[in-house]
Amino acid sequence: MQKAGVRAIVDSRSIAVVGIVEVVGHIPRIWRQFRKLVRAAAAEKPDLAVLTDSPDFHLRLARQLKKRGIPVVYLIAPQAWAWRQGRVRILKETVDRLLCIFPFEEEFFASRGVPTSYLGHPLARIVQPSMPRAEFFQKIGFNPDRRLIVLLPGSRHGEVERHMPALLEAVRLVRERQDVDFLLALPPGFGAERASFWEPARAASIQVKEGLAWDGLAYAHLALAASGTVTIEAALLGTPLVTFYRVNALSWLLGRRLVSAPFLSMVNLVAGRRIAPELIQDEMTGERIAAEAIRLLEDEAARSEMRAGLARVAALLASRDDPMETAAGWIEKVLK
């Protein structure tokens, strides 16, 4: 966004925290950033605010913006259909247009009085490998004739730290039964300041690369992926996967009671059925991940069935028009 000409007042990475308990220690810093944005809005009086995701932060900000007469377009709907439906009332009171990226969201929010439009999923048009298969395997130093499993433990440091011990155990167990290579794919610039953190992965002969997630998904036999956007990327690239997620134990106890969705992985929610295995919280162990991985590696019919389900998810997320062009059109309408 900064390369596109956006002047940053607050860096969103400074407020990226997941979990009810995990956020507590970061509240003073997040609150300072919140007040900084509110002061900037009051001083500069923007013609429009486009708030993207991060509902705990942005729904509070939307209230402050609305008080100051600033129209609000909200891009990527909060998951109020899954939990904390009280957010729907806040959206109805503060948002001039809600732009959603999953097909089932438009009816949910519109039927509850929120002005909502479905865009299609932006990733459906852009997710693709950045290089040919032969070049990719040469870059990571693996034999293209061997099977590859890509590890995607998350996009936040806290997620990776919680997930890596179980993943390392899963790698050890899978290798006892299967002759495969492993790639740990991380976001660009993710691990430079924590090089020592990746030593256990490298010691286990896991190749660690940044910025190759889409290539890794495109050319891998199987993905072991944290529940989140990466499961949608796997669906768009047709890669069979095992999903998992873990938070602080107290966060899980507090939050699980509020969740009404039948699944926690987005790929399963879009499909309306369980396509990929979900190993959440206590079920997320090295043994369970390895068992699901081995089952899929050994069962071609199961992999084919999963790929067919992923293809249906990809079709549901596709749209006739470019989602971001559609979003820009709605922003222009609200401005006028």
Structural write-up:
This protein has 336 residues and is an alpha/beta fold. It folds into 2 domains: 126 residues, Rossmann fold, CATH 3.40.50; 185 residues, Glycogen Phosphorylase B (Rossmann fold), CATH 3.40.50. Helix content is 46%, strand content 13%. It has 14 helices and 10 strands. The strands form 2 sheets. The protein has a 6-stranded parallel β-sheet, with helices on both faces. A 4-stranded parallel β-sheet has the order 1-2-3-4, with helices on both faces. β8, α9 and β9 form a beta-alpha-beta unit. The model has no long low-confidence stretch (mean pLDDT 88).
Can you give me a brief rundown of this structure?
This protein has 336 residues and is of the alpha/beta class. The protein has helices spanning 27-44, 55-67, 87-94, 105-110, 133-140, 157-177, 199-203, 213-219, 229-237, 249-256, 266-271, 286-298, 300-317, 323-335, and strands spanning 49-52, 72-75, 97-100, 116-118, 147-152, 180-186, 207-210, 222-226, 241-245, 278-280.
